[in-house]
Fold each of these.
Amino acid sequence: MTTTISIEAAALKKQNDALAAKNRGPLAKAETAIKMGQGIDTALTSLSIDIGAVVMAIRAALPDEAATNGGGSRDPATVVEPLTQLKRLLETDDGEAADFMIDARSQLSGVLTPTEIETLSELVGDFNFESALKCLSSIAGRLSLSLK
């Protein structure tokens, strides 16, 4: 068991190092924008999106978490419709996405992990729709779903 944990920790560190190297550019741009006092909002928005992607990649690298199964089905097909509807709302920057996420939470809980639901809820609640779309794409990929 200790060997498995050590191997997983080493793999996670390797992925973290690769992600950190990849994302130094946006961090450096944000730092420069702040120092220069120009383009701060744009640089921070870009950094926020990149950090969201890094967090999702790290979460994806962690050992699988069981779905909450809050009385729902574990069949991924049961969440295609609500996830597709959420995707449409996010793509059109519709503020109704936040209300929809609250309403769909119980249906999603039978298939999505608690971390996925929490992350998606936070991003949608913060109106960070671009990062929410990336999160949704990651979830759809894990579940092998095609959201149209």
Amino acid sequence: MAGCSVEKNTGTTRFYQGMTSRYNIYFNGIESFKAGIERIENGYIDDFSGILKIFEYSDPSTQPMCAADMESAIAKASKVISLKSISAKPEVKGNEVPSAKDEEFMNRKEYNEWVDDSYLLIGKARFYKHEFCYDHEYYKAPSRFQWYMRLFRQDEKLVSLINNILGQNNIDVAFIDYNFYGQYISLFRKRKIPVIYGTHNAQAELLNQTPVKTLRARRSKLIQYLTNKLHETWYFRKANALLVVSENDKRYHQAFVRKEKIFVIPNFLIESAYAETSAKKENYILMTANFSAFQNSCGLEWFIREIWDKELWDRTELLVVGTHSTEAFNNIKGRYNTTHIKAVGQVVDLKYYISRALVSIVPLLHGSGSRLKCLESMALKTQLISTSKGAEGIDHNDSIIIADTPEEFKSAILKALNREVDLTAKAYQAFIGKYSLPPNKRIFSDIIHRLTGGGK
């Protein structure tokens, strides 16, 4: 089988090396990994004299149970990486101009798909072996995993500040908003102060949707995902109440937090800041976002690649406004036709652009939670066109035009430009009824009333 050497990159080579990786070395490695997990499940005994573990593998006593199997899995996965990796570039035949798909294929760092799976297997096996502690020799060198694990440590200065505040004031309820602050819940709970923890998204799930291209990026994504998932599953249940922004996010968090603790308070706006203006509509389509977030930059690229065409750019222009909008546009414009598209960049007041746009678009394919960009268009009476994912979590009473295919999206834009449809008044009423301050203030007041002993 000299013709199937990893030093060559042909269809035959990729098939042979992939097949022998999957059904031989990697298969044996994953079987060892499964055997280690089974040993934990069958051998672990709950200690009812202390706090019970939600996940058996979190108990350090499980490490000896699975160590041999996990080490075997690591050895097998390492063998795939060392013997089966194909990094040589395939030969280019003919003089045809390569397509975007061809260029993506040629730019790959690895051509055996089971190599990156082997890296993940090593990471998971080390996780079950508890090789994420600072004093373990594998992690004595600075590492990204160490950096993420530091997020769970309590900062002494912040602890001192919190204790000073609690000692000098009568606190009825503590509110922790987002990020890695779950480790501070205990400071309040030991003083019998109820804690409300606010989430912005199903963060681990959102990270899991992030597209990655390289093995290094995939490993980094796995570490971030595990870190966020561990924070969510371990700390969120310790709060007295968990705030989520949509019913979908509520269902996600119910997997590890009791449902009676979870309350939906959607993203909302203070209506007085979006009072009706006399702004005159101008001939442009608008997309606003933080374009450093992958879901927004990917959505913009999808719109330009699949929807933006001569029929549209002869009728109007597209303005791309928001943080990193210029960088996102510059990354795209060399690959697609960007006639009559302008990146404005970050602006002081998005309301100026939203209120004057004929159409506001949210062409998202990924994400979670609910989007303020949708609510702002509803509040400023600008016709909104969105994918289902973009409008997810918003009870808009059919006032947002939903379009999930390029054909539907383009057709909806043309109808809006021709004034054949106008749902802005209906959208404004949906905003006032559910996404303005008064209705959400009542929900929040009810939660505080319940936690402080005022009844349900």
